[in-house]
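Changelog-adjacent note: as of this version, every example in the card shows the full chain rather than a window. The one below runs 250 residues end to end.
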Amino acid sequence: MDILKAPRVTLIARPEFLEPAHLPVQWKGPASAGERLAEFAGRICYMSQANPAGRSTAEYLGNILQQGHGSVFEHAVYVLLIEGISRSCSHELVRHRAGFGYSQLSQRYVDESQAAFVMPPAILGDLTLEAEWTRQMEAAQGAYVQAVGRLMEKYSWVEDRVHRRKMAREAARSVLPNATEVKIVVSANIRAWRTMLELRLGEGAELEIRRMALSCLTVLKAEAAAFFADFEVYPTVDGSEAGRVGFHKV
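Full-length structure tokens:
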């Protein structure tokens, strides 16, 4: 049984910007395709492709952040593979609807007899709590395996073995805890990512989803820093990390 203590976030898709030859922008400074796309969309609004202010892409997007004209950020969509989070955490994440798309591992189809479990941040470092929590996860996994076996026997009359397994797993999953690991593909535009991160990075956010949000911010900022230049990560009094944003609800 695997015990996971941190999320794993992987960028799996990014925007591709195809600049129209008849409307070229006088670009300044380096930028990713997603950042260029947002700048191009913003300049179309005013037909300012000549870049009269001579701004770099980072400066242009910084001004967008300051002005709160975040609609141009909706064109740039980034897709993350998020692993090592619990089903409890994923159920919090999927409450963010506008601008998001999700595809999550199905316990009805996937064999969870070798499932991993995500240890809550609050338990980490307390050896007594860690040991007790681990015993509980082992018991839950054992109950799942036993339930699947007995349900497979109960449904032995079902000729289609694939359907029989599905019937057994969909019932047996009821004994699995919220700590069971989830793998989920998440797509969102930059405006949606910023809203989710602003809400989930705060000190009032649940610890596990805050930890996940910090990992998402790290990956997204490495890919397209100008979109997240106003985010600040800082240490909290309890030794964890949190984040805040300079420009709210862009």
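Structural remarks: The first helix runs from residue 33 to 46.
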